[in-house]
Amino acid sequence: MAEGETYAQRPALRGTRHMVSAGHYGAAHAAFAVLEAGGNAVDAAAAGGIALGVLQPDIVNVAGVAPIMLRMADGVVQTIAGLGHWPAATDPELFVREHGGHVPESILRTVVPAAPDAWITALTQFGTMSFGEVAQAAIRFADEGFPMYPLLADMIATRQQKYARWPSNAAIYLPGGAPPKVGDLFVQKDLARTLRYMADQEAASRARGGDREAGLRAARDAFYCGDIARMIVAFHREQGGWLSADDLAGYHSPVERAPSVRFAGIDVYTCGPWCQGPVLGQTLNILDAVALKAAGHNSADYLHALVEALKLAFADREAFYGDPRHVDVPLAGLLDADYGRARRALIDPSHASPEMPAPGDPLGAARRELRGASAPRREGVPAAPPRDTSYICVVDRWGNTVSATPSDGSSDSPVVPGTGLVPSSRGSQSWTAEGHPSRVAPGKRPRLTPSPAMAVAADRFVLPFGTPGGDVQAQAMVQVLLNMLLFGMDPQDAVEHPRVATYSFPDSFEPHDYFPGRLCLEGRIPQATGEALAERGHRVAWWPDRIWRAGAVCAIHADLQSGIKTAGADPRRASYALGW
Question: What is the pLDDT confidence band of residue 127, given thresholds at 50, 70 and 90?
C-alpha cells in the first residue's frame, strides 16, 4: 500500500456532536436515539448495552456480565466490574468428584448475574436518565422482534443440539423445532416482560414520589429481590443449582480506578485482573514502539515480536490473574515498565517459543505451582463456536466516554422459564486445578475474558475501544491500537486491516484447550510473511481473508482540540457506528 492509502472498505464516520460504535447496528441506533434525546454517554451505553442482550442473545445475556469503563468530565477513568461471583453454596469438589475436574455445561456453572446491577450502578452514579428510558429500545426489540441476521442464524443453527437440551431454551431459539432463518422475525416475549417489569417497578416508585435514584433502586430490586429473583431462585432450587436469594440480593458491582500503562506517550487503561484486561497493558510494556514501527506494519519481524510478547503476557495471566478479593495478584509488578522490558529481553528474534513461556517474577509475586488437571493439548485450530461477547463505546457532546463489553450466552445453561434469561454461565471461565489463581470457590469471581479499554492522551484525544472474541480480545485490540498509534490509521482503517491470533496458551473457557505454538493468520496477510513466520517456528494456520474469530473491534477517536469524533466499526460482524 502507498503511504496515506486507506485499506478500509467502509468510510470512517466523523462528527462533532456525539458518536457511538457497537457490536450490532440496532444497539448503535438505540444508543444514538438516547444521545439525540439529551442523554449522556452513560445513558446511551446502557441503552445500547442492554439492547445487545436482546439483539445478540447467543453472545450477550441481559442477566450476564457487563464490564464497564467510564471517563467523565473530571478525567478520572473508572471501571464497574459487572462480574458476578460463585454462589455461597458452591461445592468446588463436586466438579472433581463427579465431572472429571471440569465445570460442565449446566446450571452448575451459574454465577450471580451482574449486568443489570452494573448498568443501573452506571446510571445511578454517572447517568441522567431512568432505567425505563434507556431500556425502551431493548423492550421493543424483544417484544416486537427484529429480523434475524446471518451470523446469529448461523450460531443458533450450529448450536441447535445445545439449545435442544432444555425445553425453555428450545422454545425461544428453536421456534417450531428448527433454528430461525435469515430474515425471520425473532421475538423474545418473556424477555420483554422481564425488562418491562423492571421499568414498571421503577415507574411505580416515581409515582409514589421517589426521585430518579429511588426509581433506579426499584428497578434493580425488581431483578435482585423481587419477582424476577424469586423465579430464578425457585428454578435453581428445582434444578439442583446453587444460586440463592441471598446471593442475588447481596450483589453489588464495585466501582474502581482503572489500572493503566504508558505506551508511546499515551495512557492505556484496562480493567483489573479479575478479567484478562491487564494482558493488553503487559503486552504494550513488553513491546518496543520504535522497533515495531521500524520493522514495518504486519511484516514478519513485526508480527513475530507482537506474538511473542502476547505469549509472555498470557503466561503471566495463567499464573497470576484472578479475583483480587481472593488471591494476591501482583498487579503493580505485572504492569511495571521495567518488568515489561525485562520480559522483552526473553524474546528470541529468530525463533518462536514452541509452548506458552514460563511466567515471570514480578515484584510482589508469590510463585504459584499449578497442581492437578492440566490443559488439554490440541492439534489443528479452534473450530467450535466460541462463547463470545459484544461491545459498545460512546462519546457524548460533553466529552463523557464509555467503553463496555457485555457478554454471556444462551446455549450452555438453561433459560429460567418465563423470564427469557440465562443467569450468567461465566463459571465456564473458572478452573478446578488446585493452586490455580482462578480456581472455583464460593464468593469468588471467575477470570473473565470481556475487557474494555480506553487510551487517553492528555489534552489531545480519548479513544475507547474493545471487541468480542474470547482470548482473541486483547490480541485484536493491541493490533488495532498499534495501527492507530504507530501507523496513523483512522479507526475504521485500523479495524479493517488483517490480523493474527496466537492460541499458544490454555483457553479461558472450559475445557481450557491448549494449542501449543499455533498462530492463525487472516488470508490478507501476504503468503511470504506467513512462510517467514513458519520458518521461525510458528505453527501457522490460515484463516479466510476476514473472519469473525479475529474479533470485531469498535473504536471512537475523540479529538479533544477540534472536537471531531471519528468512529470505526468492524465489518467482520454486525458492528456499526452512528453519530453526527
Answer: very high
Distances 145 to 139, 148, 350, 411 between C-alpha atoms, Å:
9, 9, 54, 20
Q: Do 460 and 560 contact (CB within 8 A), yes or no? A: yes
Residue 181 lies in a domain: no
- Could you check whether the bond before residue 511 is cis, i.e. omega within 30 degrees of 0? yes
Tens of pLDDT, residues 265-300: 999 999 999 999 999 999 999 999 999 999 999 999
> Which CATH number is 345's domain given?
3.60.20.40
Domain count for the chain = 1
Strand order in the sheet with 500-502: 500-502, 518-521, 539-542
Name which of 202, 141, 500, 543 is nearest 352 in CA terms: 500
Q: How confident is the model at residue 198 (pLDDT cuts 50, 70, 90)?
A: very high
Cell numbers 489463581 correspond to what residue?
437
Kindly state the cell numbers that stand for 28.
448503535
* DSSP string across 204-238: HHHHTT--HHHHHHHHHHHHHTSHHHHHHHHHHHH
3-state secondary structure of 489: coil
In the chain, % of residues over pLDDT 70:
97
The span from the CA of 393 to the CA of 23, in Å, is 9
Q: Which three cell numbers stand for residue 157?
A: 443453527
Q: Is residue 420 a contact partner of residue 194, using CB atoms and an 8 Å limit?
A: yes
- For the chain, counts of helices (H) and of strands (E): 21, 19
Name residue 175's amino acid. P
Residue 383 pLDDT > 60: yes
Domain assignment present for 152:
no
Partners of residue 421 on adjacent β-strands: 416
Residue 235 resides in a domain: no
Give per-residue pLDDT as tens, 29-77: 999 999 999 999 999 999 999 999 999 999 999 999 999 999 998 999 9
- Contact predicate 228/201, CB 8 Å: no
* Pure H helices in 106-239: 115-126, 131-134, 136-144, 150-158, 160-163, 167-173, 189-207, 212-224, 227-239
Residue 531 lies in a domain: yes
pLDDT tens figures, 418-434: 999 999 999 999 999 99
Sign of the C-alpha dihedral computed for residues 236, 241, 246 and 249 taken in this order: negative
Domain ranges, residue 534: 1-110+250-580
